[in-house]
Amino acid sequence: FYFLKNNGIKEIIYGNPSKVTYKVILLAKNGVGTKTSFINAYTNKTFEENCNRTAGCSYCTTKIDLKNGNKLTLDFWDTAEYKGQDKLYEFFLKDSDVVLLGYYVTNKVSFDDIKDYWYPLSKRISGKALIYLLGNKIDLFEYIEVVENEVIKFTKENDIRFFKISCKTFAGIQTFIDDLTNELIKR
């Protein structure tokens, strides 16, 4: 499994998804950069140092052309942080196919928030959604606070797929998208 670039169109070598549109919810503490910055990095190949915070929710759609002529659509729902507003998240998480939980590797509190609030909430509401954990800001390696062994232990115990990325340098983003696409096709 791998992607080819052909006139700017992403193609997947094999696969025929049973579904063509997937709802992807992004959850994280505000300022983590794994929501709006991720969407900008992946869909527009851009990075803003001081990105405006999302108010409410924003929405973005991207299509991936499959080699067999089919299309796979990812509908990204970028949510603002409203901790404690579980009823609001029920709306966003309902019928979601994928939940992206984000933290920044330079801030232990952001990872603790994933373990203590975002993961339990998303697991309870989204049910069978595929859950990913994205550790952002790996370009700031000299400031890393989160011990990777702790992250790996958490993801293994909870059957969560884990990727380290940098929205600033785009490192790891395509690898994550390749894995996500492959997992969705297998479902």
Structural class: alpha/beta
Name the strands of the widest sheet in spatial order: 1-2-4-5-3-6-7-8
Q: What does the average pLDDT come to?
A: 80
Let me know the largest β-sheet. Answer: 8 strands, mixed
**SSE order in H/E notation?**
EEEHEEHEHEHEH
The overall strand count is 8
Estimated share of beta-strand residues: 25-35%
Helix content: 25-40%
Query: Which of globular, elongated, flat, extended, rod-shaped describes the shape?
Result: globular
Radius of gyration of CA atoms, rounded to a whole number: 16 Å
Discrete helix count: 5
Point out poorly predicted stretches: 1-16
What is the end-to-end distance?
A: 15 Å
Write the layout of secondary structure elements.
Elements: E1 3-6, E2 9-12, E3 21-28, H1 36-44, E4 57-66, E5 71-79, H2 86-93, E6 98-104, H3 108-126, E7 130-136, H4 148-157, E8 161-164, H5 173-186
Parallel strand pairs: 2-4, 3-5, 3-6, 6-7, 7-8
Antiparallel strand pairs: 1-2, 4-5
Helix pairs in contact: 2-3
